[in-house]
């Protein structure tokens, strides 16, 4: 296996950090870019497992930490927004498709939670993306465990211009700027979903308390093109290793149908 760590700078000289991996560096292959959810990093076991299975089936894989996300990005995590996230994904596509072993006509985005939302927002207006796999993804920005709160709390946050979230992975409270809310509320998912022409696979946990299944159903009902919705029995918001293995055949069948590899 060839594994290359990379950094890509933004206009403020801050960088996202990622790793691109392939088992077959001497031939051109489709590339699967894995997008983290909020409060997540590229180093989780589930992402490494998914990457390993995709490579075994002939994909180049890319995992990365957002510039303003958790993990190794050099930006301040408190300024994470969906806009910054989507811009990072554009830079990652640019970087990955310059590799000789990557087929630039076969770019797949696989996103979890807000990563899935970002994947749809980008793919709807970026013809380089060939297919999207969206896992535990919100349609309504305000209908998530992170953003669902009483109006009184929203008003208080608007005045303070920041709020705190507890990160289980970091084991501490993390400060997030209110621009996360302002930016997210402006995202037109209805327009993005309506414009999405690439094949879309939606996977949602039966027991997802963080993002209700109604979000996936709304996306499915509004997408005009080829679309699939799979509900995984017993799965909560964050799939564990056995659940990743359980849902991988769904991903593989979808990609075989729409990406030749």
Write up what this structure looks like:
- The protein is α/β, with parallel strands linked by helices.
- The protein has one domain (2-142, 189-258): Rossmann fold.
- Helices cover 34% and strands 27% of the residues.
- The chain has eight helices and ten strands.
- It has helices at 45-56, 82-96, 114-123, 151-160, 179-186, 189-195, 213-222, 241-258, and strands at 2-9, 15-22, 29-35, 60-65, 102-112, 129-135, 162-167, 172-177, 200-205, 227-232.
- It has an eight-stranded mixed β-sheet, with helices on both faces. A two-stranded antiparallel ribbon has the order 7-8.
- α1 (45-56) packs parallel to α8 (241-258) and α2 packs across α3.
- The longest helix has 18 residues, at 241-258.
- The radius of gyration is 17 Å and the shape is globular.
- The two termini are 18 Å apart.
- The model has no long low-confidence stretch (mean pLDDT 94).
SSE arrangement:
Elements lengths: L1 E8 L5 E8 L6 E7 L9 H12 L3 E6 L16 H15 L5 E11 L1 H10 L5 E7 L15 H10 L1 E6 L4 E6 L1 H8 L2 H7 L4 E6 L7 H10 L4 E6 L8 H18 L3
Parallel strand pairs: 3-4, 3-5, 5-6, 6-9, 9-10
Antiparallel strand pairs: 1-2, 2-4, 7-8
Helix pairs in contact: 1-8, 2-3
